[in-house]
Amino acid sequence: MNGKHLIQKTLVVLKPDSVKRGIIGEIISRFEKAGLKIMGLKMIKLTREQAEQFYYADEKWLESVGNKTIARYKEMGLDPIKEFGTDDPKKIGSIIRGWLIDFITSSPVVAIVLEGVNCVEEVRKLVGPTEPLKAPPGTIRGDYAHVSIAYANWNKIVLRNVVHASETEKDAEREISIIFKPEEIYNYERNIEEVIY
């Protein structure tokens, strides 16, 4: 076994806040400098249908999003019932899903298919935690965003955290298929591959 099975593809979406702020190139360069290879790249305005597939309404996902939000509210001494009218994690997750869909369809995004060794995990490390307030300096979210979950929820807006990165290899496959046709993903070799693989 030569380790080729550890080479993965993942999806990164530079959200409307990245595009409108003009930081696309800076963010893409972070991935390239880490040795990751761009296999597909395009600017696209997602349809509502694509966004609804992208942020799928799986009950586990809704509950997970809701539970994370409730936990963060408790950490900050806030009452989710006061902000959301409920403390049901699935209902809170559903509200946040609606905000995500509204935001990602509000203007063009830049979608990127990246490839590299343990690419999913590597990209998640470079991007940093979901909440910019908790993202350390040096990560993309830590350097280019700063708001908290509580601030976003008070304002009834999605958490503006600059970039989406697939959480798992399975998620990456599903998300890539929503945005890219197979012929839009390119296999090629770079002359630096002998030193990065």
Describe the structure.
With 197 residues, the chain is an alpha+beta fold. The protein has one domain: Alpha-Beta Plaits (2-Layer Sandwich). 49% of the residues lie in helices and 14% in strands. It has 11 helices and 4 strands. Strands 2-3-1-4 form a 4-stranded antiparallel beta sheet, with helices on both faces. Helix 4 packs across helix 6. The longest helix is centred in the middle third of the chain and has 17 residues. It is globular and about 55 Å long. The mean pLDDT is 93. It is an enzyme of class 2 (transferase). Its cofactor is Mg(2+).
Write a concise synopsis of the structure shown.
This protein is of the alpha+beta class and 197 residues long.
What structural class do the secondary elements suggest? alpha+beta
N-to-C order of helices and strands: EHHEHHHHEHHHEHH
Described by strand count, sense and barrel closure, the largest sheet is: 4 strands, antiparallel
The amount of beta strand, in percent, is 5-15%
**Oligomeric status of the shown chains?**
single chain
Q: What fold name goes in the CATH topology slot?
A: Alpha-Beta Plaits
Which key terms come to mind for this protein?
alpha+beta, NDK-like_dom, NDK-like_dom_sf, 197 residues, 4 strands, 11 helices
Write the SSE topology.
Elements: E1 7-14, H1 16-21, H2 24-33, E2 37-44, H3 48-54, H4 59-75, H5 80-84, H6 89-104, E3 109-117, H7 119-127, H8 140-144, H9 149-154, E4 163-165, H10 169-179, H11 193-196
Antiparallel strand pairs: 1-3, 1-4, 2-3
Helix pairs in contact: 4-6
